[in-house]
């Protein structure tokens, strides 16, 4: 380094050579750390060294602490997950050499890619470009004169097909081999391939079934001859078309149809492969006139988002949920409070800052199980367009000392790196029980203390919103519920008859999915006495059980022909017998007292 000065020394994945010395498994690792420390100290002693040492890692906590003190790695720069504005700037850099359509909107793509890092956006751009190439290539295929004529491409070829007997493939012999001699020109051959590949609906399959007795065993066999279509529509030239002979013993009609469809799919794939190989060998590169007007559209990027998974999601980090307010049939009052607590600070950040409200608010959703607390959290995150981390309370607990606290720190660190973000703690009572004065339950006490520090400690949460859900708010530590943490408690109770009707309409898509008969009245079902203690999850189970009853009826009468599955009133009556409410009458009184206590 001194000889090459001035220079920059970059050490990638520095954690692999500088682990903590107290946990190092080999003496060599300790010696490497000690040598690196002494070398960096020597550089500081010389004023004219002019050497800059840069290290990169995604595990800074695993580095030896001596490396992170002043005089060695003085500054630590955290490269977190880019926000919406940063993603838009990254996309502009990645797409500066690409031809984009006139309606392309960087901000729209950036908004629909939460949790994407630079590498993910690069993969997204590459996938969108491939989709655009495939789209333009298909358009060029439909143009006349696209394929050049090369004589002798398919002439003299002989295609043989293996024979399948009793589900086992055997080598073709002279008795069961079908050969096809093609003497057409290349253009006609490739044209047929295109028509067979792209126009599957126009092709037809002729299946000739024969029954014969074999001389040895006397078992009946059936020969299925799958004949490819003739472009001229003349059956006399069927010998020139590829055919496939399949011998099956004692096979049902459905298996025969499956075999025929599978063989047709294999033929289509072979034809498409033959066509692509022909283009690679004989087709000249596309000219500038053919590529004129080729551009990557917004639709290509939107389609590629479905195929590219962000790195944060692969690490267990959930991005924007797919639950919307349309998926929730009721809870309008709770919805308004959630929008004001989480949605408003995101959409009206300047107004909140002008009022001096900088701290993100926390919300605790309490109520009986199955009333939609988790769906509410997902819907508000979806509408606001911010990231969403769902944490099950028990999954953070670990039997080893310090591991549970480290898991809590990692959750909040991920949320800060991808702010604005919502952290949703499900079953919060398992994570934050009341701390006792006797010093019992040391592990749970440390987790509660760590959670309190992350919620309202020296480091501000800024755009990190906290939501929790519990069925037992009475056993949660009171310090969690003070202002600045989970200061807003919302009760999500059992739905009223009107709410149940709205939920049933939402579940059944207004009676279209599943399809309901004319004798089914959702209002009557919502006011049924057995629905008094039903939650939203119970209503979903009721509709699902009624649909299964309708499907069971159709399956019994399947021999009468295909019938549409329609759910009628009798199916709901049968479902009422099978589906029991999640909340009993005594528990309902307990939750009513809990709601009254929260209001007071």
TrEMBL record:
Residues 164-264 are annotated as: Disordered. Gene3D superfamilies: 1.10.8.60, P-loop containing nucleotide triphosphate hydrolases (3.40.50.300). One of its GO terms (cellular component) is nucleus. Residues 164-191, 212-228, 236-264 have a biased composition (Polar residues). SMART domains: AAA (SM00382). One of its GO terms (biological process) is ribosome biogenesis. Residues 195-211 have a biased composition (Basic and acidic residues). GO terms for molecular function: ATP binding; ATP hydrolysis activity; preribosome binding; RNA binding. The keyword ATP-binding applies. Keywords: ATP-binding, Nucleotide-binding. SUPFAM superfamilies: P-loop containing nucleoside triphosphate hydrolases. Residues 359-496 form the AAA+ ATPase domain. Belongs to the AAA ATPase family. This is AAA+ ATPase domain-containing protein.
